[in-house]
Amino acid sequence: MAFVAQWPALDRAAGDLEGQVYRVMRDRILQGQMPPGQRLPSTRWLAVSIGVARSTVVNAYERLKAEGYLQSTTGAATRVAAFATPPLQGQAAPTTLSPVPAIEMGAGGLFEPGVPDVAAFPHAAWARCLGARGRSLRVHDLGYGAHSGIRELREAILEHISATRGVIARPEQILIVPSTGAAIDLLARVLLRPDRPKGTVAWIEEPGYGTAQALLRMAGADLVPVPCDQAGINVAKAAGPTPRLIYVTPSHQYPTGVTMSLPRRLALLEFARANGSVVLEDDYDSEFQYASRPIAALQGIDRGEVVAYLGTFSKTLAPGLRIAYAVVPSRLVSETAAAQRLRGAVVPIHIQAALADFIREGRFRAHLRHMNAVYAERMAAAVSALRRHCGDQLTIGEGTGGLQLAAWFRDAGADDRAVVRRINAQGFALRPMSALHLGPPRPGLLFGIARMAPEAADAAAAKIAKLIRLPEVTA
């Protein structure tokens, strides 16, 4: 059958046969080789034809359905989904790189967003890696040459995000930085120039990440809020000049928690390609998904090299490690690396070397599996408790991933800032949703679930419900 006539040989030694089947089909769909409406063969037939277990094909189909590439109904065949955006062209061949030249609320309260549970940090495993590397650093790693990161860590990170997030890059494209904020600041200052086309215009999701808003402003950006709905950012509704930079959190939007749909992803990539814009994809807590496996990164389906992918270990391990990374388009590597060296945004070598070992020994993946189960339980408990006690006042988000949970006031006229002040005075650390809007706000509350023990969620939600209902005291 033509469907498998040109199926590439599976690399059985590499493992992850499900991922290989998924990527072959995804790429065929994106390249137009499988047009919208095409009927797919049964999972049993395809499994026999390419020599894999049926469960391998079933899981690959489910991934493609979850990401919007396929659609099916009960009793009907699975077919390729219809997209509003034309299929993208083939992946550009790797280019030769140019030589690289030598805020918000206080911490400590219940339901605090943006912080992981550092009490669960794998101290013993990390100490072994750190101690071993501290005693055996090589001479050539101790000089000035590795200001953008040692190759071992770049390769370890790339191996991880290629397998788990679908990122396509080379080690040279990865810059090791102290934080995602440092990466945003670095890229913004490289890209936003008054003397260049589109100058200092930056689009950002509405509502959006307050720290990103502040950093872009400090870099001289003229911010244009672009509305987000249940399908993510909608570039068709942007009102403003064409941007040089577009900041998005597509896998788990901050703060709403929605996942950008495939049509929106393709539309964003096509817009950026056609207009010479660079997309900053902040993938800060996408490792944590509770209802399904993580959605592949936007960067992995970028065929025009318009996406700079940002990741961090602050949410997955601990903020105190001060390690994040940026995967930048090839054409920006030289300029971005030079700017990084000038700004001194570097990470100590012994920390980098220890993290490379921590990843390659499988310790990082094991920690992620453990914490995903822990956070899933905490998220479920928080959602259940808040819906039970606050459901008459708030519309609670689904809580399918990440470390924060969005809730919106049913009363559109509610003063969420006043409510947050009242709640936080009683030992909480919530954030008002209105503070995350650049335009007219929609009132709501942002909860963090990482440090909320499941057994404590009910009492905390009950207390919050009482505080929400208290009348506002005026002078």
Explain what the structure shows.
By secondary structure, the chain is α/β, with parallel strands linked by helices. The chain has 3 domains: 10-80, Arc Repressor Mutant, subunit A; 121-365, Type I PLP-dependent aspartate aminotransferase-like (Major domain) (Aspartate Aminotransferase, domain 2, 3-Layer(aba) Sandwich), CATH 3.40.640.10; 372-469, Aspartate Aminotransferase, domain 1. It contains 14 helices and 14 strands. The protein has helices at 2-5, 17-30, 43-50, 54-66, 123-135, 151-165, 180-191, 210-218, 262-275, 333-343, 349-360, 363-390, 416-424, 454-469, and strands at 70-71, 79-80, 174-177, 201-206, 222-229, 232-233, 245-248, 278-282, 307-312, 324-327, 394-396, 404-409, 431-432, 444-448. The strands form 3 sheets. It has an 8-stranded mixed β-sheet, sandwiched between helices. It has a 4-stranded antiparallel β-sheet with strand order 11-12-14-13, with helices on one face. Helix 8 (210-218) links the parallel strand 4 (201-206) and strand 5 (222-229). Helix 5 crosses helix 11 and helix 12 packs parallel to helix 14. The chain starts with a helix and ends in a 6-residue tail after the last helix. The relative contact order is 0.14. The model is unreliable at 84-107 (pLDDT under 50).
